[in-house]
Design brief:
disordered C terminus; 206 residues; 81% helix; mainly alpha; single chain
């Protein structure tokens, strides 16, 4: 579940970057850190992931799992791989209509991947756990609103550091949380199905 969610979500997130109508909120923040420090996007992401994981370990309990550690070190290489892939697949100057369609597609792909990842028993990426922690800890705060709030903060901070903000960025801030919440029941069913199949496979080996 975690591997599938990570690969799918990064496919959508990096599509934002490739379309050049702004990046998704977390990538805006990563771009800002990279431009401020002179690091590559992949290296900046790894460092930010480590910092976030350390903060979650220090101030929360039960959210950091083995998959969280795996995400911390695997997402960076995925970023570079998708950058190269989309560089080969997409035209140098896509038409505006195509860019808008790809932005909406990127929102759906990334949101589905994130919904699947968040249902993984192995854990999730540190940056995606922030809105989960806020939703869990703050009374009646629904996940979608927690996600919109954290995405807005990431965009503001990333923009101030030099990250690329555009129409796609604003779309993702508004759509990620609600779409992830829509996909969550499907992701839960998928998680249960995979869990049942895993148990059956173990029983066959006994």
């Amino acid at each position: 579940m975690l591997a599938v969610g990570t690969v799918v979500s990064q496919a959508g997130i990096q599509l934002f970057v490739a379309v050049r109508l702004g990046s998704d909120p977390y990538m805006v923040f990563i771009q800002g850190v990279a431009r401020l420090t002179g690091l590559s996007n992949g290296m900046a992401m790894n460092i930010v992931m480590l910092v976030l994981m350390a903060l979650l370990l220090a101030f929360t309990s039960g959210y950091i799992r083995p998959g969280t550690v795996l995400c911390t070190f695997c997402v960076g290489p995925l970023v570079g791989a998708y950058e190269r892939l989309y560089g080969l697949l997409l035209p140098a100057e896509p038409a505006l209509a195509l860019r808008c369609a790809l932005i909406l597609l990127a929102c759906v792909i990334a949101s589905f991947g994130l919904a699947v990842m968040l249902q993984s028993e192995a854990g999730a990426c540190p940056n995606d756990l922030i809105s989960v922690v806020l939703s869990d800890k703050i009374g009646r705060l629904e996940f979608r609103f927690a996600r919109i709030g954290t995405d807005a903060v990431l965009v503001a901070a990333g923009f101030l550091m030099g990250g690329t903000v555009g129409v796609g960025t604003l779309a993702s801030v508004c759509l990620y949380g609600p779409i992830i919440q829509v996909f969550t029941p499907t992701a839960k069913k998928l998680a249960r199905l995979l869990h049942v199949e895993e148990i059956a496979a173990r029983q066959e080996k006994l």
